[in-house]
Amino acid sequence: MLFLFFSLICFTASANETKLKYDDEGKLDIDYYNHLIVTQPQQLISQLNPFINESDTETDIEIQLHARYLISNAYYYLSQRNKISSVAEKGLTLAKAHRSKKFESRFLAILAIGALSNQNINIANDYAHRALLLAEEVEANSSFHGEVLLLAAQVFYETGALQSALKVMVKANKIFTDLKDDKNRSEAMASIALMYDELGQPEQAIEYHLKSLELINVEENLVEASITYYNIALTYRSSGNIEKAQDYAELSLEYASKAGDEVGAAYANYELASLYEELQQTERALDLVNNILPVFAENNVTGMIILSHLLRARLKAQLQLPGWKTDITTAEPLVEKTPTLKRRLALVRSKAKIYESINNASLALEYYKQWVELNEEQLKLSQEQSTRRYQAMFELNEAEAENKLLHTQKKLAETELEAREFRQWLLIILSLLLLLVLAAAVTVLLIQIKTKKKFRELALIDELTNTRNRRSISVFAQKSLDEAKKNERELCFAMIDIDHFKLFNDRYGHDVGDEVLKSVANAIAGELRSRDELGRWGGEEWLVVLPDSQCENIKHIFLRIQSRLKAMPLNIQGAPTVTISMGCTNLTQQDTSLEKVLKRADEALYEAKKNGRNRFEINLA
User: Fold this and answer.
1) CB-CB contact of 497 with 558 (8 Å)
2) N or C: which end of the chain has fewer CB within 10 A?
3) CA 258 to CA 402: how far, in whole Å?
4) To the nearest 10°, the Cα dihedral for 87, 88, 90, 94?
5) pTM, full prediction
6) Which residue blocks in 422-465 are alpha helix, DSSP H?
7) More confident residue, 59 or 342
């Protein structure tokens, strides 16, 4: 993830000459710096910290920006997120002052990671979204863009926005695959592996983790190897394979120690302690926890502080040692401060096991009941995350149809059993007839279910262009407007119309016209961000909804669409180049209805056509 360069500059009272490391071609030795940060990040911090504290920021701006970004990422690699802000905030200020949007995007992304150390979830998400917008604006589909996507994916993953996380992970993986960048592609695959693990698919998670390791030299990427081995250990433990989990936890510890990564080693030791607990090697586990707790406390790793205190409380209770109440008392307020479902589950689970260990059956039973309730809540939450808003209207009918199908299949099985038991031909014939009737009923019900699913797709998608239809894009636009007004976020709308579309239908026929519609839809969709949405408004007209954006950005999108359309082959002799006109408007504080906003966008589209077509106009009135 880390690239570019840093400098070792030593200042004395006599202002000694600045010394930098160069390669054989006289350029800054980027490979050296990248190698150092993934093998000995602590050494990089020690070398660069004096420079950022002593150098003249007015004469070394570029070096300051690179150095601060490298140090921030080193802290990220070392899981010392609480130290990121002090370095990166000054970097962000410098980037803004010197109009370096590239570094502004980088520092916003790394500050989003830093915000997670204090559980500032809203700030973390805001920084991540802003970083993505800048990265796409400055250098879309580049290695730089992919690296910002990876940082944002980590933020979305840790804040529970799994759908957003998966989108940016897949996009980052595609960028690095196209660029043949195995190093960053490895990180993208590791991120996708975490998603599979979160979705309860451990085999796929481990497969992607191992694939990520195949793309890098683990001896040259010690920290990344340590993190990946740790995640594999977690997956194996959750799957009940203790032996494999222990092997990979020990590998994680080995590579973290090689890299001088104290926090990473603490993570690996925590995993080993958890495994020793399951293996009933209680004293061994307690020794490890006692050693790692000060490391997590010093680096303000809140989640691991909670888990370590809870683990130590369970171990002390099992050994009948005093002090477990102190650990629980320490963990509880931290959980209450940010009571995520996972943390509440960990707390209740620990209390249940502790009271079971000290033979307090009534309290143990009470907390086991709470544990079951929270597990049910977690299951419900997971189900809700996988449900789409537009499926709601179909769910009841589909559920009824599926229940009927199950009932019919049950009857079919009963009839088959009945037919085998009766020996008389008359009963056998009657049973066969009943089987035919029930089979026909099953067939009808299956057709009904398939038809309902087809209707669900048709209710949301324009069949010709495979974009949202008018009803669907209208609902999305209203939802985006409500959210933007509520959260005081930026939002813009664009109306697009194909120029002289009637000419294609009249001169070449409706089949050619349909091909033009599909090609234009693909060209527009190809230039939008993952959060933007495109819908067919009617005929040859589309509506584009762009959250967290303003009309000032529409020029870049329009020009890229123009380029795509110019290169679009129609394979028809004498056919003119397809062009579009576009009208754009921003959401304002005075806007009270979607119709009012869309009317402005439509008026801007009219102006674009009036002024010669193949252009865009903005209406901010």
Assistant:
1) no
2) C
3) 56
4) 140
5) 0.50
6) 425-460
7) 342
